[in-house]
Amino acid sequence: MDEDVQLGRLAAEQRARVLIDGQLEAAGWVVQDRRDLNLFAGQGVAVRESIMAPGHGRADYLLYVDKRAVGVIEAKPQGTTLSGVEWQSSMYAEGLPAEVRLKALTVDGRLPFVFEASGSETHLTNGYDPVPRARRIFAVTTPATLARFVREAEADPENPTWRAKVAHLPPLDVTGLRPAQITAITGIERSLAEQHFDRSLVQMATGAGKTFTAVTAAYRLLKHGGFRRVLFLVDRNNLADQTLAEFGNYRTPDDGRRFTEIYNVDKLTGAGMLTSTHVAISTIQRVYR
Fold first, then answer.
1. Domain spanning 3-155 has what CATH number?
2. What string of DSSP letters covers the chain?
3. What is the value of pTM for the model shown?
4. Where are the domains of the chain?
5. % of the chain beyond a pLDDT of 70
């Protein structure tokens, strides 16, 4: 029988579980039933229907990374407004049974990574953020990424995530910058630090130095702001070439080296992106192919 037909015959919540199981496995998780628990099966193990402490129910998935419990997933049918179920996943994150808590990673008494998922949408609350809240993400986070989040938080407890780091950027060196560029860069950084909005818009006149402004902002965020990668979108291929040249010509304000001597800048191709890429330049069409 066709898999889509079989999936369609399942109850809504069961369908979501099947989809989430597949997404977890695609992201590198080993998905197990509680009775088959084996934390040596992989770096990341997702355990279905984990029984929590009395009064805290069952977590749809309890996530282990490097043999430590680090997060939970609350699974809901497709179409569910995930922001309405955050209280449930938070309850699981705080309700660890004693035997799990012994080998768990907690932040302020709760697991740091709290997910809500429906198979078509995924939200993540990162407990290391200065003001943790659920945010929509593109896909289920890999075990390696969560492990990196933990390493970075343990290495810099005062500023454990990029959202913490951008609130403490060093003063902008305004040498060679035009007033409009200074306003734009400080505005971007203030918006990121305040976290009132998920997006920001910089509007500058033709010839005002938009690309140079963007390169300067990217450099500061990569060096000081905890960013690992920047996607630079253009609408035409010739602009991608111009942007690549602009990054190559940019001299950093601290030691005068070229941007490309410090960070890898590449155009996105049909072969995909190198893991070593720090700035990926692409047309919108290429991103969605």
1. 3.90.1570.30
2. --HHHHHHTS-HHHHHHHHHHHHHHHTTPEEE-GGG--TTS-SEEEEEEEE-STTS-EEEEEEEETTEEEEEEEE--TT--GGGSHHHHHHHHH---HHHHTTB--BTTB-SEEEEE-SS-EEEEETTSSS---EEESSPPPHHHHHHHHHHHHH-TTS-SHHHHGGGPPPP--TT--HHHHHHHHHHHHHHHH-S-S-------TTS-HHHHHHHHHHHHHHTS----EEEEESSHHHHHHHHHHHHHPBPTTT--BHHHHS-EEE-BTTB--TT-SEEEEEHHHHT-
3. 0.87
4. 3-155, 168-287
5. 96
